[in-house]
Amino acid sequence: MLAGAGSLFAVIRLIGLHLAAPAAGAPSSSAATAAPGTLAHVLLALLVILIAAHSVGALFRLLHQPPVVGEMIAGILLGPSLLGRFAPAAFAFVLPAPVAPYISVLAQVGVILYMFLMGVELDTGLLRNRAHTSIAISHASILGPFLLGSALALWLYPLYSTSAVPFTVFALLLGVAMSITAFPVLARILSDRGMHTSRLGAVALACAAVDDVTAWCLLAFVVSVAHAQPARVLMTLLLTAVFIAAVFLILSPVARWYAGRYSRRGGGGQDAMLVACAALLLASVVTEGIGIQALFGAFLVGVIVPHDSLLARDLVQRLEDLVVVLFLPAFFVFTGLRTQIGLIHRWSDWGVCLVIILVASLSKFLSGAAAARLTGLRWRQALSLGALMNARGLVELIVLNLGLDLGVLTPTLFTMLVIMAVATTLMTAPALNALLGEREAALMEQTL
Amino acid sequence: MLAGAGSLFAVIRLIGLHLAAPAAGAPSSSAATAAPGTLAHVLLALLVILIAAHSVGALFRLLHQPPVVGEMIAGILLGPSLLGRFAPAAFAFVLPAPVAPYISVLAQVGVILYMFLMGVELDTGLLRNRAHTSIAISHASILGPFLLGSALALWLYPLYSTSAVPFTVFALLLGVAMSITAFPVLARILSDRGMHTSRLGAVALACAAVDDVTAWCLLAFVVSVAHAQPARVLMTLLLTAVFIAAVFLILSPVARWYAGRYSRRGGGGQDAMLVACAALLLASVVTEGIGIQALFGAFLVGVIVPHDSLLARDLVQRLEDLVVVLFLPAFFVFTGLRTQIGLIHRWSDWGVCLVIILVASLSKFLSGAAAARLTGLRWRQALSLGALMNARGLVELIVLNLGLDLGVLTPTLFTMLVIMAVATTLMTAPALNALLGEREAALMEQTL
């Protein structure tokens, strides 16, 4: 049969070979297509990013360091700081200039999905049910680093900013950059140790959650005032308030109703993902339109998903792996491509960098520990919590990229602050080891 | 406390306002960033695509049509055929030219993930355990449409091809385009009715699986011969054979071992996703490098994942929703952007289009039904199976885009064949209704 078909095709082919087709015109440019070869290069870049991030991450796990630090460092290594400097040919092959924008968009879409997941995993019940004291205390742990950071601006502004950036915006952003805590990390550690149901754990979690929300509010404020005209700022703030009100007053009840219906029928189906994607894309587009970042919209939509519902669990399960495995490494490389360690060439620059790291970690560590001590934790636990809150992780990188995009940070200062983010996250594990001993610390590391 | 902090910040700000920063230099061009506003536009485009695809899909579900037809049509409607023609301003706002390449890359990455999932869901046991007869019969059901398609090339080549395309490649591609069956659809229908464990169902499934694999092999062959030089073709075929052998002889045992280990420790963790992403990206890059498409690599890697393992189930669960909800609609729009119905302006063109649809559906329907009858199905069931096999769905669009990318199809013929793909998928539900009656057909539609 195959032979018969083959010979039939051969006959058709023989006849066809004599046919003439119209002459080829100019190749019609297909607007919808990226340049040829782009897809192959994007796939290659993603492959290298995936392997580099997770290899360095695994190496750091072997060294009893949190893998996320390794992934952050892998991103910097693939950028102009190492690969681009010492192997420019390899750099140009793996991450050529035409491919970088695609990695950038993939990374940003990934971070939007990640912010949504962070919102879903944020337990708003913690914020509602806690006494005012814990909120006051948690504000204290954010205000210390914030004020020290903005005071630092007095020194850094003449050195590393430009006259195009108003001092107020610069000081605000530096304050926020200092006061960030990688909340998801803290939450996971506490819940893994079963501490999140205890009174102390719950207060600590509530503090961290308040920290997180406060930092993002401050940042949204920074973003809105970064646009120069006062009228525009007022409009942005007003629209942001309207947007937040609409999300909590209109979307939130709908989300609760939908989550209830979803769990009553036992989950399943693809409409949960459809509804979630539509809502988070809509919120992202609206917040971008308002003039604050897409991140905030996605985060808020995540927050209104009832934290403990089947819907939340299913969405996290179906999104988290791909986002964490494929998209976040792309974001680290996106950050790494913009981190140019070569810009810090003078010894005095390195001195400034060291001061930034010291101010950031001491202020966060001490005010975090003091706040935790006031909630009733014993000193050793309070200090451990301070050390944990000093881990800035991915969240800090999101803030810094935002500052760079807004033009508030110069590439030099951006690079210094990225080094600070890596250093503070890097010192968490040794600090915990010293404070808690190996066994407890090992448990924390695995979840970091 | 807040007031204190506020006034402290006010003091810092007052001092800082007197500071002068260095003059702003030329804005440093950040290579890693897409043009400003790109992200917002990509998010907007994704939102519109998501809503359009799933609304039209839901509308088609109401009309007792498979939603996938609605999503295909939504993609065409958002393209130059409708939106671009009658509302050019809206089209330029939603899908401006600078945004299209990003949608294109997202769509292609999505299709690569989808091909991987199709591979995972392909039950290779079916191919191994069946008698040679069923394979022979299934080949018959693919050879009919293939030969008729290539015979059709004798007529279409002088009309719609260009002299830049060799007749052999043109005839091969047209043959493959006619013989495609949307295998995943068929598999899901049979398993939903519990027919896949019966002897008849198993034979039918095996036939469809063989169809699928044969079509992709033929297509890989077409892709490799589309590159003109004979030496290059031989090299491509040789490397492809080496690649396939390496995947089945080396990677496949590793995949079986890993799947066994994964299910022994009860799943969980993110390393399954990491391993899967790394393997499928590697295979995609290698197949792109060889000169066949990334799709084949991803599909093959999917095939070697043991079909019934916990690993396969977890991967499908964690990838499928996002791919189907967000990425596939982007692919339909990517296709729609390249489908210009305006190119079919003469009545004779519409006549040709009609002939293509008739040849495609009659040849597939009749040879599918004849093949099914020979496996022992009763006539009514055999005809239903023929009608099912005529649904070409998404798989056909993948083939057609490949043909357009290779330059084998002109935009006009591409448009005609897209219309054929939509039409054949569209006629499946009414044909099943007529053959099987409402109840059974409704069951089929839901899964289509």
Which keywords apply here?
homodimer, Na+/H+ antiporter like fold, mainly alpha, 448 residues
Q: What can be said about the biggest beta sheet of chain A?
A: none
Q: What is the overall silhouette of chain A?
A: globular
CATH architecture of chain A: Up-down Bundle
Strands of chain A, count: 0
The greatest interface here is: A-B, 100 and 100 residues
**Helicity level of chain A:** over 70%
CATH topology tier name of chain A: Na+/H+ antiporter like fold
Distance linking N and C termini of chain A = 62 Å
| Average pLDDT taken over every residue of chain A | 81
Low-confidence stretches of chain A: none
Fraction of residues in β-strands of chain A: under 5%
Specify the number of helices of chain A: 21
Estimated structural class of chain A: mainly alpha
Rg of Cα set of chain A: 25 Å
- Multimeric status of the protein: homodimer
